[in-house]
Design brief:
The chain contains seven helices and seven strands, in the order H-E-H-E-H-H-E-E-H-H-H-E-E-E. The chain is of the alpha+beta class. Strand 6 and strand 7 form a beta hairpin. The protein is flat.
Length: 251
């Protein structure tokens, strides 16, 4: 393929499709591959149903090598990955034995691979970080591991751990310098932030519970710093210049 198609969806094996793209022709790559052992899409050779998570990680490294070939030197790759728990050994043979989880898995014709992990039952496998570390070992630079918080995540019937409401988004690059427009995503400072910056905190002057060496106080202010205990345990007041601050120490 001498030129990249524009406004066109290409369906196929991602590695095979990318092999038809010219080198260093893509500015941005962003995708979320199938998570390991969680869903059967009914496609032979699909990513996500490898017999072991090690094979899944190796396959993702192979995908990453083709991404690196087509990505421009000033480009970025954002990879979204969710995690997987090893089976507890208490569910049904196919899927999870739970309606909500059966709905996620869909029509698996074989038991999901994580149900076969003896000795690791109920363990969160940290698949996103295993993939990220393997990609780093393969030459990628990881600039961020971004937390995607999902307040409306799928409910869970598990009673001995917290529900999973986050996923990882890894920002990967292949060069030390790359395009990044931070100003486009900045959020304005709250008014309260400017007020805090204008008024030094007593904890900066005295540290925990008002004791210890002064730090963060300019030399011309040090002479005007005074401290009083209020009489109540842990409460104190600090005068810094023309400002009076109050606080409560720990313990």
């Amino acid at each position: 393929m001498s030129e990249l198609p524009v406004n066109r969806v290409i369906a196929g094996d991602c590695i095979e499709v990318m092999r038809g793209f010219p080198e260093e022709s893509i500015n941005l790559v962003m995708f979320s591959p199938p998570y390991w052992g969680l869903r059967d899409y009914g496609i032979e050779g699909q990513i996500g149903l490898e017999p072991t998570y090690q094979e899944y990680v190796a396959k993702m490294v192979g995908v990453g090598r083709e991404v690196r070939r087509v990505l421009r030197s000033d480009g970025s790759w954002y990879l979204n990955l969710g995690d997987t728990y090893a089976g507890s050994g208490c569910g049904a043979q196919h899927g999870w034995g739970d309606y909500k989880r059966e709905k996620v898995i869909g029509t698996m014709s074989e038991p999901s691979p994580q149900t076969k992990m003896k000795g690791m039952e109920k363990c969160k496998l940290l698949i996103p970080y295993r993939v990220a570390l393997a990609l780093i070992d393969d030459g990628w630079t990881c600039r961020n591991d971004i937390t995607w918080y999902k307040p409306n995540a799928m409910p869970s019937s598990v009673k001995d751990r917290l529900n999973c409401q986050t996923e990882r988004v890894f920002h990967l690059v292949k060069s030390r310098t790359y395009y990044y427009d931070l100003d486009a995503i900045r959020e304005p400072h709250a008014t309260s932030s400017f007020k805090r910056q204008a008024c030094p905190s007593p904890t900066l002057a005295y540290g925990q519970r008002g004791h210890g060496q002064r730090r963060g106080v300019h030399s011309e202010e040090a002479a005007s710093v005074r401290r009083w205990d209020s009489g109540a345990e842990g409460d104190f007041f600090v005068a810094l210049g023309d400002h009076l601050y109050g606080g409560r120490g720990a313990g």
